[in-house]
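// run 5 | inverse folding | seed 20
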């Protein structure tokens, strides 16, 4: 019979050196398989004399157990090493790459809309909308501008071709028809602003055929001219980010408000440079007034019970004033260099808490 210690050591060394599960299986078959070395020795036990057989049997069993235990340990070691290697090879880097700065820019008109919505939103106004293509009633008649009223000429209206009923739709000349639509479809109290596109057949240094306005409307039982003044003074200071900017209410005329006013803000033009703030000069920025009883009546609201104020302003104009943009027409040139210069970084959403402008 072979030297069992030597056999065991030889097998244990081979097991420790096995570099994969296949190699280990080959060692197992060669030692413990049906024709394996240990198995063959077991088979030979029968030929030994009885007194030797017992000791040899115990020795062989010990070898067999040691080898089986070593193979099992090596097997789980190799399996977990293989798993570790597979996991390492499979690993996904879930960290995001650093993003390059966004190339796009927010147009100053959009930025100004967002700033206006942020300010009036804080005062409890919500945003309302209406169509760009309006009928005569909403754009004029319901706003106390009947046919033949001189204010219709002032508006340089774009008319669409007559329809079968002989009516001509218009491109809305102001955002004021949204007042009418809002009052027709919602019961008071109301508190809305309506930013949007407007159109007039006019084109020169200071006019473009399409431009933007924002309309404001409050209807309830108690709002008066004092509220109108407080609200718009607060707006001017917040929007221009000049806390003590002088604000002046100048009597004016609009068919849909009575009394009506225009709002001027203080500025200086010293050295040819326009600066918002104190300085003795004035700049007109918006029209406003108490909603005319006839407008309330046209919307089915009782003027003996309800009242309120309205205002309207041009977006391009207040954007030019705040951001020092000299030429109105450049807003619509779609010039990337202009947009890179005057545009705003995306995601810098204006809020009153963090500041309107980045
Ligand atoms: N709709 C007027 C315009 O386009 C602006 C305006 C003035 C709107 C006074 C109003 C207002 O709501 O009360 O010129």
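// decoded
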């Amino acid at each position: 019979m072979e030297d069992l210690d030597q056999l065991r050591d030889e097998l244990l060394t081979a097991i420790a050196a096995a570099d994969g599960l296949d190699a280990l299986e080959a060692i197992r078959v060669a030692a413990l398989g049906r024709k394996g070395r240990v198995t063959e020795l077991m088979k030979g036990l029968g030929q030994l004399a009885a007194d030797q057989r017992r000791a040899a049997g115990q020795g062989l069993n010990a070898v067999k157990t040691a080898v089986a235990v070593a193979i099992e340990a090596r097997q789980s070691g190799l399996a977990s090493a293989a798993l570790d290697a597979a996991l390492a090879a499979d690993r996904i880097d879930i960290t995001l790459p650093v993003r390059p700065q966004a190339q796009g820019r927010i147009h100053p008109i959009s930025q100004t809309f967002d700033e206006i919505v942020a300010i009036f939103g804080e005062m409890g106004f919500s945003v309302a909308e209406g169509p760009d293509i309006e009928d005569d009633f909403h754009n004029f008649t319901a706003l106390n501008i009947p046919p033949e009223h001189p204010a219709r000429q002032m508006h340089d209206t774009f008319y669409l071709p007559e329809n079968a009923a002989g009516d001509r739709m218009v491109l809305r000349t102001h955002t004021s028809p949204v007042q009418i639509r809002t009052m027709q479809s919602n019961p008071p109290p109301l508190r809305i602003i309506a930013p949007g596109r407007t159109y007039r057949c006019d084109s020169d240094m200071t006019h473009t055929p399409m431009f933007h306005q924002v309309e404001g409307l409050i209807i309830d039982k108690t709002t008066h001219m004092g509220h109108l003044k407080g609200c718009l003074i607060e707006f001017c200071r917040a929007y221009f980010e000049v806390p003590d900017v002088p604000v002046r209410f100048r009597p004016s005329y609009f068919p849909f408000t009575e009394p009506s006013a225009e709002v001027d803000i203080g500025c200086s033009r010293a050295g040819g440079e326009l600066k918002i703030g104190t300085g003795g000069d004035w700049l007109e920025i918006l029209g406003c007034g108490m909603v005319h009883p006839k407008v309330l009546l046209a919307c089915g609201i009782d003027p003996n019970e309800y009242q309120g104020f309205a205002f309207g302003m041009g977006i391009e104009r207040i954007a030019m004033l705040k951001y020092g943009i000299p030429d109105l027409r450049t807003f619509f040139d779609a010039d990337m260099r202009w947009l890179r210069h005057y545009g705003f970084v995306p995601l810098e959403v204006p809020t009153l808490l963090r500041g309107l402008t980045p």
